[in-house]
């Protein structure tokens, strides 16, 4: 039987039904920003106990790379460009949050001196600190510490599940 001809309106209606039924996964975009000494930037957040990498939740219709650039500009007042994708990390549900896909980008080296706290988005960022990757573990969530250890200096993009490398089968 030949394929049924479908109008554009019917096609869009069918897609809308599927979109309403299919699961949606939260996407997060974060960046690894280093200073000339090789330390990474960690943000003290108003809504979390642990410090975290700069970035945030990807808005609908926004790419992860655009998201991390926007979030760093809005929250820290500095312009960055998303470089190489360092890792994609599937995060299981944690502390009330649903599972998510985290995209970690290399944001390069920030060599413009100290960050200006007057530019921070105070409702979200209460402080920003440069730390070595080894020292980061004392301040960040366990999954972030593991992700940094695995992905920060990896030669290729890493696929992680709960910050653990997935070995191809």
Automatic annotation (TrEMBL):
Query: Mind telling me which InterPro entries this protein's record contains?
Result: Nudix_hydrolase, NUDIX_hydrolase-like_dom_sf, NUDIX_hydrolase_CS, NUDIX_hydrolase_dom
- One Pfam family cited in the UniProt record for this chain: NUDIX
An example of a GO molecular function for this protein is: hydrolase activity
Q: Which Gene3D superfamilies does the UniProt entry name for this protein?
A: Nucleoside Triphosphate Pyrophosphohydrolase
Q: Which PANTHER family match?
A: GDP-MANNOSE MANNOSYL HYDROLASE (PTHR43046:SF12)
Protein name listed in UniProt: NUDIX hydrolase
Per UniProt, which keywords does this protein have? Answer: Hydrolase, Magnesium
The text of the family note is: Belongs to the Nudix hydrolase family.
> So which cofactors does this thing need?
Mg(2+)
Instruction: List each copy of the Nudix hydrolase domain by range.
Output: 23-153
């Amino acid at each position: 039987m030949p394929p049924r001809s479908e109008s554009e309106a019917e096609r869009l209606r069918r897609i809308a039904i599927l979109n309403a039924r299919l699961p949606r996964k939260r996407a997060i975009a974060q960046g690894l920003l280093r200073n000339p000494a090789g330390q990474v930037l960690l943000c003290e957040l108003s809504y979390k106990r642990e410090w975290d990498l700069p970035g945030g939740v990807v808005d609908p219709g926004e790419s992860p790379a655009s998201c991390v650039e926007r979030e760093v500009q809005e929250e820290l007042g500095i312009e960055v460009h998303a470089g190489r994708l360092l890792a994609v990390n599937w995060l299981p549900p944690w502390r009330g949050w649903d599972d998510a896909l985290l995209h970690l980008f290399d944001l390069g080296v920030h060599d413009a001196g100290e960050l200006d706290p007057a530019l921070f988005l105070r409702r979200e960022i209460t402080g920003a600190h440069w730390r070595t990757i080894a020292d980061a573990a004392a301040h960040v969530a366990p999954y972030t510490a593991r992700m940094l250890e695995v992905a920060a200096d990896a030669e290729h993009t890493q696929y992680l599940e709960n910050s653990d490398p997935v070995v191809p089968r």
